[in-house]
Design goal:
With about 375 residues, the chain is α/β, with parallel strands linked by helices. It has 13 helices and eleven strands. It folds into two domains: about 5-115 and about 210-225, Peroxisomal Thiolase, Chain A, domain 1; about 140-205 and about 230-380, 3-Layer(aba) Sandwich (Peroxisomal Thiolase, Chain A, domain 1).
């Protein structure tokens, strides 16, 4: 298997892009990545997206994006794994290069979510839950995560305000990222005064939807000796419905995919310089830290309280705002994480730069943990 390198990065700022269609968002990110890499043609295009059929009345995104990038004749497909779509598309791109089947692969993640009524957007998102046993009861993903967070509070004896360090860190880091939706820090008082959405999840515990697109250009490492390397790539699944899990407070797929990625990279949690985790909700940040080996069960919150997740802490997370401050255009999120990690390892993260960053991990979660994709990147 060949080693894979990330030669190009492209991002569109996460916003409410009233003036841009889904194809324009995807094309803008794709062109930026190709220009960054200095290439004009690719062997394959993988597009990640979750809701275009429901919200934009547009499927067949692979061919659509290839068409408007001028990549006629190129193999192009769309991949979907709920909010883990982008990480999954990245993994397919890596496999294509590593196997020797392809030499240049463009991976583009895109989502346009803000031009539809809130109820329609929520209905589209909940299709990632179990349609027979979860959604008929009117549950939403905010509701599912609220149930998990409520159980965590009960099981480990925390109070709601103990989770404040997660969104506070994300917003402080997002203030350094021009692509983030929210670029203002928040205080503990602001967090505590946040409007309750689904008890105990308030406004600052939940990431915002947005319109956005991000892209990466992949090549064999031998052709890009100075580019960031993919050191580990793994995906795992868990039960789709939370009630089918033996332990609802443990992200089994996060543990499995992280352990596989660690083994591929020949490292452990202590070797990482930063972790772009999937903080769609504050509770998911805590559970991810625990499942990936940074804290014992019930101690992920303690890790945040101790400042270990800050830019100068033991394991900086969400270094450019995470889902909470950057925004969460679901089918593109995993590629934003990977793009940000790549910029960190290049030394191109601007005001958000983590000093001396050499190894980074990203983790993209689909649904409430049914699909989890973990990548480890290494500076060349």
């Amino acid at each position: 298997m060949r080693e894979v390198a990330i030669l190009g990065v492209g991002q569109v700022p996460v916003r409410e892009h009233w003036d841009l269609s889904i194809r324009q968002l995807a094309v803008a990110a794709g062109r930026a990545a190709m220009a960054d890499a200095g290439v004009t043609q690719v062997d394959a295009l993988y597009v990640s997206n979750m809701t275009s059929g429901e919200l934009n009345q547009q499927r067949h995104l692979g061919a659509l994006v290839a068409d408007h990038l001028g990549l006629w004749g190129t193999e192009a497909v769309k991949l979907e794994a709920a909010c883990g779509s982008a990480g999954s598309a990245m993994r397919q791109g890596i496999i294509a290069i590593a196997s020797g089947e392809m030499d240049v692969v463009l991976v583009v993640g895109v989502e346009k979510m803000t031009e539809t009524p809130g109820k329609a957007t929520t209905a589209a998102l909940v299709t990632a839950a179990d349609a027979d046993y979860e959604t008929p009861h009117g549950v939403t993903f905010v509701g599912l995560n609220a149930l998990i967070m409520q159980r965590y509070l009960h099981e480990y004896g925390y109070k709601h305000s103990d989770f404040a360090p997660f969104p506070m860190n994300a917003h402080a880091n997002g203030a350094k990222n021009p692509n983030a939706m929210f670029q203002e820090p928040i205080s503990l008082k602001t967090y505590e005064r946040g409007r309750m959405i689904a008890d105990p999840i308030n406004l600052y515990d939940a990431s915002p939807i947005g319109d956005g697109a991000a892209a990466l250009l992949l090549v064999p490492a031998e052709k890009a000796p100075h580019a960031v390397r993919v050191a580990g790539s793994a995906s795992a699944t868990d039960t789709l419905a939370i009630h089918d899990r033996e332990e609802p407070l443990w992200l089994k797929a996060a543990e499995q995919s992280a352990q596989r990625a660690y083994a591929q990279a020949g490292i452990g949690p202590a070797d990482l310089d930063l972790f772009e985790l999937h903080d769609a909700f504050s509770i998911m940040a805590a559970l991810s830290l625990e499942a990936c080996g940074f804290a014992e069960p019930g101690q992920g919150v303690r890790l945040a309280q101790e400042g270990a997740i800050l830019p100068d802490g033991r394991i900086p997370i969400c270094t450019m705002g995470g889902l909470k401050a950057r925004g969460h255009p679901v089918g593109a999120t995993g590629l934003y994480q990977l793009a940000e990690a790549t910029l960190q390892l290049r030394g191109d993260a601007g005001a958000a730069q983590i000093d001396g960053a050499r190894i980074a991990m990203t983790q993209n979660i689909g649904g409430s943990g049914a699909t989890i994709v973990t990548h480890i990147l290494r500076k060349a």
